[in-house]
Amino acid sequence: MPSNKHRNRGSKINDDTMMPPNKQNTPSQEYEDDEIEEMQDTDFKKFMIRTFRSFQKQILELQKSLMDKIENLSRENEILRKSQNETQKLVEQESVIVKRNQNEMKSSIDQMTNTLESLKNRMGEAEERISDLEDRAQENIQSNQRKEEEIRNLKNIVGNLQDTIKKTNIRVLGVPEGMEREKGLEGLFSEILAENFPGLEKDRDILVQEAHRTPNKHDQKRSSPRHVVIKLTTVKHKEKILKCAREKRQITLRGSPIRLTADFSSETLQARREWRDIAQVLREKNCQPRILYPAKLSFVNEGEIKTFHSKQKLKDFVATRPALQKILKDVLHSETQKHGHQYERRERK
Length: 349
Hints:
Elements: H1 2-18, H2 27-30, H3 33-38, H4 41-165, E1 169-173, H5 180-196, H6 198-201, E2 208-214, E3 227-232, H7 235-248, E4 251-253, E5 256-262, H8 266-273, H9 276-284, E6 290-292, E7 296-301, E8 304-308, H10 311-318, H11 322-348
Antiparallel strand pairs: 1-3, 1-5, 2-3, 4-5, 6-7, 7-8
Helix pairs in contact: 9-11
């Protein structure tokens, strides 16, 4: 019977040695309490030795397992520590970079602020200078306008003085050079009166104060003869002679055609020329136009004689007369364009 028990225990021990350490039963678990009591001392000692060795082996395995876990934890801890140190270094580096960038940005912002302030100051100074220049330009424009007005007034005064001086003059055009050698210019004028106005030649009140050619110096390259200026004693005699000349229309000297006109300043002559196109259109419409002394336009409209000193006055009047506006529309428009081109040329100069 005991031998069967020992065989059973042997089979159990063999089974236990084949199991993993964590699943093996301890020697105390192999026997029941009554079996332990039946053991002899030798068996009990063996039993205790096996039990102790089993415990020792389990303790060693547990110790090894714990050491492995501790080592793993140590490695993981070291890795975490290294990672933490690296992260801390990166954070510190990033902090330094961020701080440096902040300082650079602050410096850049300060520079931009200073630059903007400087630009604002310069813009303010530039605006002040521009304002000063505009004021000066306006002053110059006003000054030039005043000077131009003064020049126009002076020209008008000079022209009026010249016209006053020349008020009694008659200008003779077409008298050949050298013809005055025999009788002089006064004698030629008397011959003109006798040939064209026999009644006036006998009027002893018509006296010649002075006679000369203009310009004084003869230009050999000039194809046409110089004009002859005859200065009479009174305006009345001058107007009488010119009226007869207008009525006769064809004036001659020794059979050659000549012209008698009033003597005006260059400004007055230009002003009279500016009326010619308008006078020609009015003449074609039988409005009886005349250019009066010194440079006024006179014509008949709706049975009344109208006189104008300037083209602007004429334009204002024409704007109230549709029929007259239709007649003068083209010529006034062309005059406006011509003056516009002249103004543009003066502006370019």
